[in-house]
């Protein structure tokens, strides 16, 4: 028997041996390799911690950028006919350009540009991920906030101004509280989407939850358990966030009835 014939015969014997193993035993073995052996479950936990850290940092940055952009665009849209502020018009044009570019390009491409072009020399991959995802989220949050503010009856602003209140106090005490209740579901959805999108940071080498699964799959040659495992982890976190948002929405509805 030649060399290749011997190799093929051994390969056939190995496959036959695997086929004879009961399914549940095979699954337990794959689970042990993917999660227990070598304390690999710690890699998943560390990756999950990185994903949550990026999500929180990007959310904070996204809200800050979103509020600033929304305020500029709302001020511009609420100008009285015949009145035009050149500085405000310039800022509004820049904000529109920002939202158009960010919303019109994939987040993965933005991560690649930030990670391998703009910050190619940076070792702080978490900072790069937070900055990129925060800028991306800010474009969407700004439209959510602007839509919520514009949904409030303009007569409420006029009524407040007629009572002698300034623009900022009316926005703070009358418009914003109502707008928050309108935009909370959309903001919650953006938060959840942001957490799931952290799986894209693997393209710049950040060791998040998805990267941990990819590395373990490369070591064990088992794809089912690592990827199904992180799918369950993402799902559980999303369910927990949805539960928290539901509680917050119910409390806001209760406050409306008082």
In short:
By secondary structure, the chain is mainly α. 82% of the residues lie in helices and 0% in strands.
Task: Explain what the structure shows.
Helix 8 (167-197) runs antiparallel to helix 10 (224-257). The protein has 10 helices and no strands. It is elongated. The protein is mostly helical and 258 residues long.
Name the average pLDDT: 84
End-to-end gap: 88 Å
Task: Count every helix, treating DSSP H or I runs of 4 or more residues as helices.
Answer: 10
Element-level helix/strand string: HHHHHHHHHH
The portion of residues assigned to helices is: over 70%
Which helices and strands appear, and what pairs or packs with what?
Elements: H1 3-20, H2 23-36, H3 41-77, H4 86-104, H5 107-118, H6 125-150, H7 154-162, H8 167-197, H9 209-220, H10 224-257
Helix pairs in contact: 3-4, 3-6, 3-9, 4-6, 5-6, 6-8, 7-8, 8-10, 9-10
List keywords for this structure.
258 residues, mainly alpha
């Amino acid at each position: 028997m030649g060399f290749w014939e011997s190799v093929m015969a051994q390969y056939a014997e190995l496959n036959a041996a695997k086929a004879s193993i009961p399914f549940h035993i095979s699954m337990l073995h794959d689970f042990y390799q993917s999660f227990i052996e070598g304390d690999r479950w710690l890699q998943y936990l560390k990756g999950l911690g990185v994903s949550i850290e990026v999500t929180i940092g990007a959310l904070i940055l996204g809200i800050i950028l979103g509020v600033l952009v929304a305020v500029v665009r709302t001020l511009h849209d609420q100008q009285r006919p015949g009145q035009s502020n050149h500085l405000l018009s310039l800022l509004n044009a820049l904000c529109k350009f920002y939202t158009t570019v960010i919303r019109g390009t994939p987040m993965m491409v933005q991560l690649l540009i930030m990670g391998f072009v703009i910050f190619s020399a940076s070792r702080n991959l978490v900072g790069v991920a937070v900055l990129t995802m925060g800028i991306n989220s800010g474009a969407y949050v700004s439209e959510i906030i602007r839509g919520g503010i514009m949904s409030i009856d303009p007569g409420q602003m006029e009524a407040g101004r007629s009572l002698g209140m300034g623009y900022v106090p009316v926005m703070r005490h009358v418009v914003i509280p109502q707008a928050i209740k309108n935009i909370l579901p959309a903001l919650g959805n953006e938060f959840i989407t942001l957490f799931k999108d952290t799986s894209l940071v693997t393209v710049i080498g950040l060791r998040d939850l998805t990267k941990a699964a990819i590395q373990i799959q490369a070591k064990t040659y088992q794809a089912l358990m690592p990827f199904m495992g992180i799918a369950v982890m993402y799902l559980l976190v999303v369910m927990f966030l949805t539960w928290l948002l539901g509680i917050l929405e119910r409390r806001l509805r209760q406050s409306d009835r008082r």
